[in-house]
Amino acid sequence: MSVNQPVVSSDEPRIEILVNVSAGETRAAQLENGVLQEIHIQRDAAGSAVGNIYLGEVQRVLAGMQAAFIEIGLERAAFLQISDMVRRPAETQDNAPRIQNRLNQGDRVLVQVSKEAMGTKGARLTTDLAIPSRFLVYMPYTPRIGVSARIENEAERERLIDTVTSLRDELDLAGGFIVRTVGDGAPHHALAADMRFLETVWRDIQTQANTAPPRTLLYGDLPLPIRMLRDLLTPEVAGVTIDDSESWEEMAAFTRRFAPEFTDRTQHYTKPTPLFDQYGVEEAIERALRPKVPLKSGGFLIIEQTEAMVTVDVNTGGYVGTRSLEQTVLRTNVEAASTIARQLRLRNLGGIIVIDFIDMVDESHKRQVLAALCSALEADPAKTTVGEISPLGLVEITRKRTRESLQHLMCTDCEACDGRGFVKTGETVCFSLFREMARVAHTQRPDELLILAAPDIIGLLLDELAATFNDVCEDTGLSVRLQAESLYTPEQFDLVVM
């Protein structure tokens, strides 16, 4: 199916969404003008819990921290702070709530995961529930009506607020709504359909909460391919390409039902070259795991992620410029600012970020660099706060994070260097191996395949990932022999056609 191209001006970025479905793992990439901006990864064995609503059970109340540990059925107890609980009518700033007056050990409480478990920390929870649909987000306990800040036309904002307010009154719904960015221009009937859908979902959650045992998942978010359509499919998106026929049919059905005007934008990729290889995404992901990022001018960045913060160091490298040292530094810093904004988004780096720009003397140059950084960060969907440039040339940024960084998701501590570096996890290596098996089967059609890999990787294929490995063998029709090579590094493997 061909992609129906949107009408956009020449200065607007061409946005494309690519979805790769492979055994045990689904990946979605967002490209702007052919450059990878974001990568989302969902593994079948460890799907994201963000957005899920659970009937939790209070494990322990910590009065000193004004927080509580809540058991929701995950590996570790989740964490709920008093600031993330919906205020009751009698509670004001002067009459601040105390968590020990709200929760007791053993209480059942309806909670939603707002931040993924990271490292040794459990998931972060809120009781201020938010249920998304294509155009709206329903907040059962918050009465306000809001519109995404990315919808800037005042007349359209007023129309949306009036429409949603009148529809809420007609349906006699409690709570509030936020119109999402994709709701820009949404007609009355589409908003009404979304609102009825959300009402049904909320009623079902309430019914389950009355009968289900504690630690039960009451509402889970959509699979990654459908979630990408719901959250990102706008008129600015040129096309959505997916390499799996079953998922493509599900995506096409979703667009026919919820976004019929975009039905022709989804296409099934069937070429022999893997989808992510065709668009250079695989290589871009590999580069995003390296600390060094080259700049077009010849300079480079060094990005280091630690438990406490992320540091970014800007260097001129071999770039000496053609005019003066000040102009060389300015050009490198301005280029670095836009590259840093993209790398933070691509690597999903959050928390405290410290950027060490090359020292500048001219105050106007400092303002130019800071303006370039702020401008580049405007495209980032995550909330960011930027500080001023310090006398040492440092800029502090805070960026909201709700899920693991790309490095933490795909890599693990390197045992050989006692945790001073990272290598890809065994799972990440195995999923790469599965994709390579599919490519070899499609392009070379061998009768038999010999896989050489490190002993730990062979162990995973025969144990934890045995079912997935067998599925790949059946899907590709390959007869496979495994051979452990003790001299191979954890990331190294070879496929030999027999």
UniProtKB/TrEMBL annotation:
Q: Which biological processes are named by the entry's GO terms?
A: rRNA processing
Family annotation (SMART domains): S1
Which residue range or ranges hold the S1 motif domain?
A: 51-128
Q: Which InterPro entries match?
A: NA-bd_OB-fold (IPR012340), RNA-bd_AU-1/RNase_E/G (IPR019307), RNase_E/G (IPR004659), S1_domain (IPR003029)
Alphabetic keyword roster:
Hydrolase, Magnesium, Metal-binding, RNA-binding
For this UniProt entry, the molecular function terms from Gene Ontology, in alphabetical order, are: hydrolase activity; metal ion binding; RNA binding; RNA nuclease activity
* Cellular component terms (Gene Ontology): cytoplasm
Cofactor names from the entry are: Mg(2+)
Q: What is this protein called?
A: Ribonuclease G
From what organism does this protein derive?
Salinisphaera orenii MK-B5
